[in-house]
Amino acid sequence: MTSPPRHHPSERAIAIRYQQLSAEVKALQRQCYALATLRLRAAVDASGTGKGLAVVSDIDETILDNTAVMAHAMTLGEHLDGFETWKMWEREGTPHLLPGASDFFHLADRLGVTIFYVSDRFEENKLATIATLSRLGLPQVHADQVLLFGPPKAERRAAVERDHRIILHLGDTLHDFHGCFAGVTLEEQHQLASDHADRFGEDWIVFPNAAHGTWMEAELRPWEAPKPR
């Protein structure tokens, strides 16, 4: 049995540098929130009210920019998913909002739409996460609307759907949108993304994250150039 491929440290640096420093990522994040705003207004207009409607959003790299801790972990030679460093960041870190996040969530709040923050942050750090979201001025940051790691995200979304109609899902990984994406191969993810193509840009808004995902361990597929004659 062969071990999975590991990406080179330089690849990690490029991914984090793009995520943290490129103007293109900031433009894409603004674009995501601009589209989410259009879909939000359309859904509320169609319903006639925001009552009974919900927006479900991931937190990290969807609302919060955590690239500082990614860079920190990389300089220490740690894996990007090092639990202890991440737990400390949840408690003591100082992330900032992605561009467009504040305006979008305050609009949802003004329209009467319920917001659920659904994240795989550690439940033990729930008070710290609530404090971070509150410090950054986000609305509806209540304990029963901040649903952290425990049951799978699909189950947490299902709990929201018992009393609300979810009009928008926001996230940076595909399992933020549907349980079918969790625990499947990269090839299956591609097929499922094709199967659900009509959802993207409608009620599923995907944010760019160059520094995290199962695809990071995949083998590249280079062009096999013809040999010189």
From TrEMBL:
Top-level lineage group: Bacteria
Keyword presence, Signal: yes
Organism taxonomic ancestry: Bacteria, Pseudomonadati, Pseudomonadota, Alphaproteobacteria, Rhodobacterales
Species: Paracoccus aerius
Pfam families for the chain: Acid_phosphat_B (PF03767)
InterPro entries with a match to the protein in the record: Acid_phosphat_B-like, HAD-like_sf, HAD_sf
Name of the featured protein: 5'-nucleotidase
Entry keywords, A to Z: Signal
